[in-house]
Protein: Crp/Fnr family transcriptional regulator
Organism: Xanthocytophaga flava
Amino acid sequence: MYDLFFKKFRERVDLSPEEEIQIKTYLIPKKIRKRQYLLQEGDICKHIAFVEKGALREYSVEGGTEHIILFALEGWTVADLFSFLTGEPAVYTIDALEDSELVLISKSSHEELLQTQPKYETYMRLLITDAYIALQKRLTSSISLPIEERYKNFVETYPDIVQRVPQHMIASYMGLSPETLSRVRKKMLNQKKNASFH
């Protein structure tokens, strides 16, 4: 159940078998079905979730419109970090796009591991740094790049998401209407076709 969790961990930080056993005692396995909630807006986010298998999304709803801020596939972590770290109500909802298997770390386990396991602390610091860099890149591209470029970057960076997530959700993630994204995809397809004729 924890294979991918530790594989990803060891890719970043070297772990001895003893350290792995110690960390494992803090982990909680959880299965959730497609469309089931991991977290609902207004609740306190009590866990960081690592995706062993499946796909989730994190989003907010304003005026009946969904705004997706994150997709999480195998090997990714997902949480409302603000709520998790501050104990304040979550502003995001997290649910499963597919039947999923997760590894959860509770707030108290997280705090204890930070104190007792220097390698866990290093790993978490790397994860949070990565998340911050990804967020900054996304902000920069949404401010400065034309829609076609943004979609092209998304497809190149996250080919798995494009295969597994409905188009209207990708549109929501990009801050576009489904119609706009559909036009962009058509235009890019035509450009590809035209290019292959030359």
In short: The two ends are 51 Å apart (CA to CA).
